[in-house]
C-alpha cells in the first residue's frame, strides 16, 4: 500500500507534463557537448518531474543554463567544452533532495556526460 501511494504521488504530476526544458548555450559559443541530468526517486527508479537544476561554470556563480526535468525525469543541455556544476534549485512538492551538494561534470566536444539527482518523495 505504501509503495502504491509513493508511486501515485510521484506519477500523478507526470500526467500532462511536457518535455524537459533547457536554455540554449550562451550566445557566441559553439555547442560542443551534451550534459544530461536525471531526477529520480525510489529503488526502481521512478522519474521525478519538474525538478529545476542550474548549470554554472566551475568556480563561477553566473548561471549558464537552467534545466527542468520532464516526464521521464531527464533534462539535457548542449554546452561548450568545460567544467560545469549542476545544482538542484527547485524540488517538486512532496519530495526532498537526498544530497544537496552540486555535482561537477566535464563537457567535451562530441560527448555526452550525465548525472542523477536522487529524491525522497512521500
SS elements, strand count: 10
Radius of gyration equals 15 Å
Total number of domains: 1
Shape: globular
Helix content: under 10%
Keywords: Signal
Protein name: Prealbumin-like fold domain-containing protein
Organism: Nocardia rhizosphaerihabitans
Commentary on this structure:
The chain is mainly β. It has one domain: Immunoglobulins (Immunoglobulin-like). It is built from one helix and ten strands; from the N terminus they run H-E-E-E-E-E-E-E-E-E-E. A five-stranded antiparallel β-sheet has the order 1-5-4-7-9, with no helix packed on it. The longest helix is centred in the first third of the chain and has 10 residues, at 2-11. It is globular and about 40 Å long.
Summary?
With 122 residues, this protein is mainly beta. The chain is 8% helix and 48% strand. The chain has a single domain (2-121), classed as Immunoglobulin-like.
What distinguishing features does this structure have?
globular; mainly beta; disordered N terminus; five-stranded mixed beta sheet; signal; about 50% strand; about 120 residues; Ig-like_fold; Prealbumin-like fold domain-containing protein; 1 helix; Immunoglobulin-like; five-stranded antiparallel beta sheet
Per-chain topology:
Blueprint: H1 2-11, E1 21-22, E2 33-41, E3 46-47, E4 52-57, E5 63-68, E6 74-79, E7 82-90, E8 95-97, E9 103-107, E10 112-121
Parallel strand pairs: 2-10
Antiparallel strand pairs: 1-5, 2-3, 2-6, 4-5, 4-7, 7-9, 8-10
Amino acid at each position: 500500500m505504501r509503495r502504491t501511494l509513493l508511486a501515485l504521488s510521484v506519477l500523478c504530476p507526470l500526467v500532462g507534463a511536457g518535455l524537459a526544458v533547457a536554455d540554449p548555450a550562451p550566445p557566441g559559443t559553439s555547442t560542443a557537448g551534451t550534459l544530461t541530468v536525471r531526477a529520480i526517486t525510489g529503488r526502481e527508479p521512478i522519474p521525478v518531474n519538474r525538478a529545476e537544476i542550474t548549470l554554472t561554470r566551475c568556480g563561477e556563480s553566473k548561471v549558464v543554463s537552467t534545466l527542468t526535468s520532464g516526464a521521464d525525469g531527464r533534462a539535457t543541455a548542449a554546452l561548450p567544452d568545460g567544467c560545469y556544476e549542476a545544482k538542484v534549485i527547485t524540488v517538486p512538492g512532496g519530495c526532498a533532495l537526498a544530497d544537496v551538494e552540486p555535482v561537477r561534470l566535464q563537457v567535451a566536444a562530441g560527448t555526452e556526460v550525465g548525472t542523477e539527482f536522487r529524491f525522497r518523495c512521500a
